[in-house]
Structures are given as C-alpha cells and as structure tokens.
C-alpha cells in the first residue's frame, strides 16, 4: 500500500492506525502521528477514519467513525466538497487513488476544483455504511465535517462546495460553524425540502419498508431508486431518450425506459445498504435552515428544471439570505442531475466562483 | 328492488336475467325481455350485465361480461360518459340508484350532462372486477362499449364524453366505430401515453408485483396509488395544502402529506382488485391512436398543469387531427384531477359543447 510509505503532512491529528484494508486512518484520541501519502513534493493524499463521540440532533451522543479523504497540494487553501446522498469522500481520482470519483469531471489537476491549487476534503456521509440506524440530520453531517476539521487541525476552509444533499449540509455548516467558512457554493440545494419531493421520498421509503418484510430488500431498493431517478431527471430527458412507444411482450409491457430504470435501480441497490438509504432519505426531509442565519457569503447555482429543488424554492432561499448572494441559473434537460451532467456550465461557474483560471 | 317493477323501455336486448343482488341484467343471447326501472313517465334507469364473446387485441377471443348502466329520459339522445381507470358505470345518482356516482357534480338532473335531456350510458371497464387477467387494450374497451350499443339496439350516440382513461378509450371508439359517434369530447386525455407517465406506471406496477404475496397486497397497492396520486395532482397543490415542515417522530418522519397519502392509498386499495389495477395500468401504456384516423368532430379539454397528459402531448394530438378541433385549456392546481375538481370550468365547457343551457 503506497500510503504507508508516505510522510506526515502539516496537519495534526490525535492518533492514527490502519484499518482493515490498509488505508491510513486517523483517530481523535491518542498521540499525533498522521500518515499521509504524497506522490511528489507538496502533493498530499490522505484517506482516513476518525473515531469520535458526536451529539446527534435526534439520537443523543454516539460513538461514531467519520471517514474522510483529502487530496491536493500542501499549504494550499482547503475546500470542502460534498455531493448527493449517493456520493462519498472520494471526489476524484488522483495518483494515489486511481478509481474514479463521483465528481471526476469537476475535480482534479486542471479541473475547476483544481487539486494543484487547493486541498480538497470530503467525508463519507454519516450513516452511509448502514451501521448507524438512528435518525440523522443534515446538522449532524455538518458537525461531522467540523469534527474532521478539528482532528486535522484545519482552522477554516476557503470554500464549501456542496451539491444536492451536500448543499443542504453546507447551509447547516455555514449556520453552525460560520467562523470556519469563507464562502459557500450551494448547487441544486435549498434551505428546506420541497413538499412534492418530500412526498416522493415518503413513497420511496414505503417501498423499501415493504421489501423489508417481503425478503425483497434489493428489489425494493431498486424500485425506490428508480422512482428517485425520475425526480433527479426530467420529463424532457425521458422523452428525448426513449421516444419509442411501448409494446405488449410476453412478460408484460416492454419499453426502453423500463430497461433503463431496471438497470440503474439494480446497480444502485447492489452497492447501497438499505439502512443507509433510509436514514439519509429521512435526513433530507428533516433538513431545515433559516436562511437569515446564513452569514457566510453564498453563491447558489440552481437548475430551472430541477424537480427536487425547484426554482421557486431557490428564490425563497436567495430572497431571505441576509448578505448579497450570487444566484446562477442554468437550464438542463437533466434537471436536478445537471450538477453531474452539465459539465461545461458547472465548470465555468465553479472556476468563476473559486477564482480558478480556465 | 324497485327495478323489478319497472316497465321495459324502447331498447331491445337479446335476453335478461337478474344477477345475484337483484339488479336488472341483460344478456346478449336469448329472447328479448329487458327489464327497466322508470321512476316517472319517460325517465329510464337500467343497470345490466351483458354476456358476450369479444376478440381482444392481445388475448384472443374471450367470453366476457360487460356491466353497464343507463339513465335519462326515454327517446332522448344517447351520451356515452366514461371516466378514469377508477371510475365505473355509475356516473351519477338518480332516483333508482341513490349512491353517489363518480361524476355527481357534472351528471344528473340540471347538471351539464343533464339526464332530463340525454340518456347517459356507461360501462364498468373490462377487467375492472379483477377476473380478467389478460393484457387489455383501450381498443378492447371501445369494442366493449360498441357491443353494449348493439345489445341495446342503439345505432349511434350524440356524443362520447371521456375523461382521462375514458378519453383514451373515446379516441379508440371514434377510430373503430366512427359511424356511431357524432361528437367526441376528450378531457385530460391524448392519443398516446406520455413517456414520464409510462415510467411512473412501470414503477407503480413494480411496487404491486413486490407486494404480490397475500400479506402485502393491500399495502403495495396503497403505495402504488399514492405514487399515482402525486401524478394526478401537482406540486403546487401539495405545497398549498401541506405547508408545514416535517418533524422526526417516534416512528419516523411525520408530515401531513404522508397522512393524506396513507389515507387515499388505503381507501383505494381496499376497493380495488390488484389484477384489475395492473391490467388497466398496462392498457394505459399500450394506448396508441393515430390522430389522423379520428374523423369524428372532436373537442379536447386540456389542463395546463396535467402531469400525465401534459400540454405538449395534447398539442401533438390537436395538431394532427384531420378535422378542425376545438381545444379548451384550463389551469388548475389539481393538475390531471381537474376533470373531477374544477367543477365550474368543466360545467361551463360541457354545457357549451353539449348545447345544454346553464
């Protein structure tokens, strides 16, 4: 494992050990001894796991593990980058971790979130490994990030860039840890859930609960994901992608859109613990920030066709923010998923917001 | 049972018997002997059941029962009135059948569909009793209606007024039985399924299949109905109706919208056979008419906020109809369900189309 041979970086944490698969891990108790991979002078990479106690909003104080990853160049400003509920700490590949990240197109050397200019930090969402079966809150996620900052001795970050769920958490972070944040970039996120999206998630969780009792967990999670996908995308995308009409087949109605839904559902269900999905879905419903409490300079990037975070909800946020806020609107057939799909538009906006040359 | 004392009306059918609950029934074979209720001179009411063989589009020739109901005044022009997949032959209450019909607000004495001016005929959808577990098609429904017309010796009808699924069937009726129809009024319906709506129904059927075991049938059908309801209504209606934010309760997330969804889902699941629902859902997906084949004068009433039959799809229909077509658009927070909810607007349009004074 190349990481084990790397030298410590400037950050201090209280303790370190190796987890089961040999990835460098930090712990919040014990002597400082960080273990950090560095491929070339000044480049850093660390993938760690922090053990800590955290007081959760709805479940009291808990012993937790927070998994995080950081990459970039030493002494560069820190950025926090967080994605949707399916995203994770591995934002982008780098020399020490070649597997593709969830935001490969926007993060890396030469990308808008340029790892030659920044140190990028991200966590796996609390609860995302399925071992924490308690009500979670976006505020808990924000506190988890702050705990990692403490452990890594990062006083403040240049910016928090959050997409979807990550944007919701970013608003909580700004409210709960304002001193640590200079700039918030919230993409496809708002201060509270949309009621239609809430109702959609209620049904999605109902499907998953139905599958629990039916020995059909994976099938149920697949269906729930399929329903979620219809919210992430738009009517227009579906119509453009699957223009053919359905036909009666031996096993029921046949349509290309059904094959696609089955595929994306199965793929997601295979990699996602049911408990994780349920708890993160709930935490989206519980998410609520009073925009007046957000005193961090904020940029909001909204998608006109977003069904989960519709333009009117974004307006509600922007109009209530106490500081002047930059609002960028983009139009996309991909709806909510534009943050993943509209590579050029998001790249341009991120470069402008983060001051990275094209 | 008051019906048994009534005198025959002018219509002839081949045979008649009484079904189990004593309602007058007609059969397509045997001697003519219709049994018809009449509360006062010239007023008619008949609730019958026709046994016949019908060649179905996807399931060959089948022995079927078609349940129908008619009410109005003798010798008046006939109207066919058909609703959504949950609607049935009992359009409105009358003296002989006091239970509320599915379109009570538009049909009856003094209503837009005035039973003092018309004879109103409607069928229960083929498959709606859950005993016909084969692929059904809107064309089959149109043929079932034509079979009832034959049995009742009705040569032609003044107008076919169809809402939602009933509008789809109406377009098929116009194409397959053009000589029998003078006017088609299609409300919240189009010539083919919208692809987004198709994908929604795919997931709804997946939920129902997931719950196929005896223990979870009702729960699954309830969930599928809840999802359907979100398509029948609009984001705006939900937001206006349930403005409160959710909270974490002991059993999960609490929200008024969830209580409402559970209620409407349970209510529907209690009265609907799973097989009926699945087969009618499929038949919506299979529905496809070439608008160029519709040679009946047609009026289309579209709802701007309809998620199942969006305005663009209605435009596609209207632009392709060979005859001049009247298109009325209404705006409604209720979306697709406006045909049930926007009483005044629909009343006004129906009166104008059917020539009934206000």
Describe this entry's structure for a reader.
Two copies of one chain form a homodimer. Chain A folds into two domains: 17-192 and 288-354, Rossmann fold (3-Layer(aba) Sandwich); 195-284, Rna Polymerase Sigma Factor, Chain: A (Orthogonal Bundle), CATH 1.10.1740. Helices cover 34% and strands 21% of the residues of chain A. The first copy, chain A, is built from ten helices and 14 strands. Chain A has helices spanning 138-151, 165-176, 195-213, 217-232, 235-241, 256-271, 274-286, 311-320, 338-341, 343-354; strands at residues 15-18, 24-27, 43-56, 60-73, 78-82, 107-108, 113-114, 119-123, 159-163, 184-187, 247-249, 252-254, 298-303, 326-330. Chain A has an eight-stranded mixed beta sheet, with helices on both faces. In chain A, strands 1-2 form a two-stranded antiparallel ribbon. In chain A, strands 6-7 form a two-stranded parallel sheet. The first copy, chain A, starts with 14 loop residues before the first strand and ends with a helix. Chains A and B meet through helix 3, helix 4, helix 5, helix 6 and helix 7 of A and helix 3, helix 4, helix 5, helix 6 and helix 7 of B.
């Amino acid at each position: 494992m190349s990481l084990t041979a790397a030298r410590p970086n400037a950050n201090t944490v209280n303790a370190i050990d190796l987890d089961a698969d040999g990835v460098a891990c930090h712990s919040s108790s014990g002597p400082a001894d960080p273990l950090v991979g560095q491929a070339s002078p000044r480049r850093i990479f660390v993938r760690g796991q922090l053990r800590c106690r955290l007081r959760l909003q709805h479940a009291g104080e808990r012993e937790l593990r927070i998994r995080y990853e950081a990459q970039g160049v030493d002494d560069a400003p820190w950025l926090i980058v967080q994605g949707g509920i399916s995203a994770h700490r591995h934002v982008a590949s780098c020399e020490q971790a070649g597997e593709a990240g969830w935001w490969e197109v926007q993060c890396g050397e030469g990308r808008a979130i340029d790892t030659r200019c920044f140190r990028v930090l991200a966590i796996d969402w609390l609860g995302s490994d399925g071992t924490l079966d308690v009500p979670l809150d976006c505020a808990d996620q924000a506190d988890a990030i702050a705990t990692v900052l403490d452990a890594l001795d990062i006083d403040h970050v240049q910016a928090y860039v959050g997409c979807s769920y990550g944007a919701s958490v970013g608003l909580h972070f700004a409210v709960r840890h304002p001193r640590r944040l200079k700039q918030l970039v919230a993409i496809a996120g708002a201060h509270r859930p949309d009621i239609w999206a809430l109702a959609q998630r209620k049904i999605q969780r109902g499907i998953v609960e139905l599958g629990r009792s039916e020995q059909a967990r994976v099938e149920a999670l697949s269906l729930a994901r399929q329903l979620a996908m219809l919210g992430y995308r738009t009517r227009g995308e579906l119509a453009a992608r699957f223009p053919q009409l359905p036909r009666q087949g031996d096993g029921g109605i046949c349509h290309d859109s059904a094959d696609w839904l089955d595929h994306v559902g199965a793929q997601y269900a295979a990699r996602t613990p049911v408990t994780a999905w349920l708890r993160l879905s709930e935490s989206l419903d519980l998410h609520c920030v009073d925009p007046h409490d957000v005193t961090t300079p904020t940029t909001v990037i909204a998608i006109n066709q977003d069904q989960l975070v519709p333009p009117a909800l974004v307006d509600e946020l922007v109009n209530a923010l106490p500081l002047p806020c930059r609002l960028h609107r983009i139009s996309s057939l991909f709806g909510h998923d534009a943050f993943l799909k509209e590579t050029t538009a998001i790249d341009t906006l991120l470069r402008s917001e983060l001051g990275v040359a094209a």
